[in-house]
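Hey, resending since the last one bounced:
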Amino acid sequence: MPLIAAYGNSENAPRLVTGPEAVKAQDKIRRQQSRRDQWPYPWLMPSEEAKEVFACGSVLAPAVNTLTEVLEYTVPSGMFFAFCGVIQNFIGSGYIPGDQDILWTLDTDQPIGTPAPQGNPLPGLNLIPVPLGAFTGTYGGGGFGVPWAFRKPWILKPNQVLRSKVLLPTNNPLSGAPNGISAGSPNLLVSVFQGFTWPA
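The structure tokens again:
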């Protein structure tokens, strides 16, 4: 059956298409209607029911070769979570970003010391040697945190647990020298999760 698929000339006259071209046009219209019915995508355009999430945690620098949890966030029951941005940073002395004295991991459903077959690091975010996000200025001077924004939010399901973990290797993986970061105060590791939830 002929299908009016597009305007075919400068006078905006409809153009009829038939055969295989009509099938392609119908499929395109169907996909457009489907996208229209799904808009706004709740993970990209928060609805009125969405709730902002800004979770933060910190720990003193741990002993070397001790995997340590910095922050844990559990997605509320009956909600999805769009994980939009993160801060994983070090405050202290003796650290050069990228020198691999600090290795950060973001994972889901993987408590430290407990095997979890379904637990997984987020792709590309396992044992990364650089901080993500930043703190600017000082608290007294009006400083603030700037999360590292993901181009596409990570979507977590109800009751999933997101964790930020850190490991200080005994010896630097690049140079082989002993880790240059002293455990304890004043060295601090900080994590922030930024995003929003919406009803599942």
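The two ends are 41 Å apart (CA to CA).

Sorry for the duplicate.
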